[in-house]
Design a protein that fits this description.
Layout (H helix, E strand, L loop, with lengths): L16 E5 L3 H13 L5 E6 L3 E3 L4 H6 L8 E3 H8 L2 E4 L2 E4 L3 E4 L2 E4 L2 E4 L4 E2 L11 E2 L3 H8 L8 E5 L3 H13 L4 E5 L11 H13 L3 E3 L4 E5 L2 E4 L3 E3 L2 E4 L3 E2 L17 E3 L11 E3 L4 E3 L8 H19 L15 E4 L5 E5 L2 E5 H16 L4
Parallel strand pairs: 1-2, 1-9, 2-5, 9-21, 11-18, 12-13, 12-18, 13-14, 20-22
Antiparallel strand pairs: 3-4, 6-7, 7-8, 10-19, 15-16, 16-17, 23-24, 24-25
Helix pairs in contact: 1-7
The chain binds flavin-adenine dinucleotide.
Flavin-adenine dinucleotide binds next to helix 1, strand 2, helix 2, helix 5 and helix 7.
Length: 368
């Protein structure tokens, strides 16, 4: 679906105002590309809840102790200075047709680019105060840091790829602690091919992780995770249970898909507001959805830059096809990893070195 943009509205500024909501992967890549290409005739503001962006691919390595916190974070102020844009550190609370509503006041826009990611979807009976959610990363880091080396037991809820990788990282760092991985479905990392699952299962056994499948969480209390049929020691309980739409999405007039995320066309435009572009986990491409994963946000970056350039030139937007397959690299501990793409499975220390190179290159491109 391709929709033309309306002419930029007059927000009282000489040049059109492009507002980036959230410093997600796609937005940062698009901003870097726009800066490199130069001569975009617009003022740009980046609104971010924090002064840093985080790179999720390195979180398991940080848990294991292979990376320092600064290795996986991107300070935004130096970027803003280098790219000549305004940085507003504020929490986005909603939006209307002409402005973003933030904790620091309204930010009018001619073009709004939304890249605020997703929240962690907590299992319903859990009190959010008793678990550390996968997102936002600032909360994950703040909640886990003081307990990483002191907790006697960890329970990771959610046996998707992220939960499995985090359980392996915890068990590698803390072989003296008990680590339980709890999954309500019948298998761990079900999105991976059987060969990769088998290898990951071997690593989990080697690291004495207790895997519990078809397990339903009923609550957490006093260092214990309660399941329907048993109780699991859990000084620290982490939830890696998938992505949920952030609350502020409901405080906007922008069309939403039936999953609650913003509904986007294949030209990245909001289905209801053509001058709102949506990238990454915050939206769902309704005609061609992708899993909520950083790799797809990264791939959207160059497409987003192209869309913004066309908007700037008052040209209609084009479809922005997004590749379906992706390389998945799962760190299994002690600088080794399992990888898979198109059904082919690879494993070894060289796979981890490759992952490390890709991850560091992503972060470092913004720190040069
Ligand atoms: C431990 C872990 C490991 C993962 N590993 C991988 C992996 O290896 N590969 C992969 O493809 N995916 C991975 N994922 C998934 C990946 O993290 C997400 O899919 C990805 O980060 C989404 O990118 P995004 O660009 O949409 O937004 P995000 O990277 O989530 O960025 C959103 C930005 O918006 C800001 N923001 C959010 N809300 C507000 C607000 N209200 N106001 C202002 N600013 C706001 C945030 O501070 C953040 O900077 C992992 C997830 C976890 C939890």
């Amino acid at each position: 679906m391709t929709k033309p943009f309306p002419q930029p509205r007059n927000t009282g500024q000489v040049r059109p105002h492009i507002v980036f909501a959230g410093a997600g992967h796609a937005g940062l890549i698009a901003l870097a590309a726009l800066h490199q290409a130069g001569s975009l005739d617009a003022d740009i503001t980046l609104v971010s809840a924090g002064e840093q962006a985080h790179y999720s691919g390195m979180v398991p390595g940080w848990i294991e102790g292979l990376y320092a916190q600064h290795d996986m974070t991107i300070p935004l102020a130096p970027l803003a200075a280098r790219w000549g844009l305004s940085l507003k550190v504020a929490t986005i609370e909603g939006a209307d047709d002409i402005a973003l509503r933030t904790s620091a006041g309204p930010v009018p826009y001619d073009l709004l680019v939304i890249n605020t990611g997703a929240d962690a979807a907590l299992p319903t009976p859990l009190d959010p105060a008793t678990v550390i959610p996968a997102k936002p990363f600032s909360k994950l880091i703040a909640g886990l840091s003081p307990r990483l080396d002191t907790a006697a037991s960890f329970a990771v809820i959610g046996g998707g790829v992220a939960g499995v990788e985090v359980a392996l990282s915890l068990a590698t760092r803390r072989p003296d602690a008990s680590v339980t991985l709890v999954e309500r479905g019948g298998a761990m990392a079900p999105s991976l091919p059987a060969g990769a699952r088998t290898r990951i299962g071997q690593h989990m056994r080697r690291r004495s992780i207790t895997p519990l499948t078809r397990a339903t969480v009923t609550g957490v209390s006093d260092g214990t995770l309660h399941l329907e049929d048993r109780h699991v020691p859990a000084d620290v309980c982490l939830a890696f249970t998938g992505a949920a739409p952030q609350a502020w999405l409901a405080q906007t007039p922008f069309a939403r898909h039936n999953d609650g995320f913003f509904a986007a066309s294949n030209s990245l435009q909001s289905l209801s507001h053509p001058n709102v572009l949506i990238a990454g986990d915050a939206g769902t491409r309704v005609d061609d959805p992708r899993p909520k994963a950083g790799v797809f946000s990264v791939r959207t970056g160059p497409l987003l830059a192209k869309a913004i350039r066309r908007w700037s030139a008052n040209e209609p937007l084009q479809n922005a096809p997004l590749q379906r397959n992706s390389l998945i690299l799962v760190s299994t501990g002690e600088r080794s990893a399992v990888g898979t793409r198109n059904g082919v499975v690879i494993e070894g220390r060289w796979v981890w070195r490759w992952k490390n190179h890709l991850d560091r290159a992503f972060v470092d491109q913004f720190k040069a």
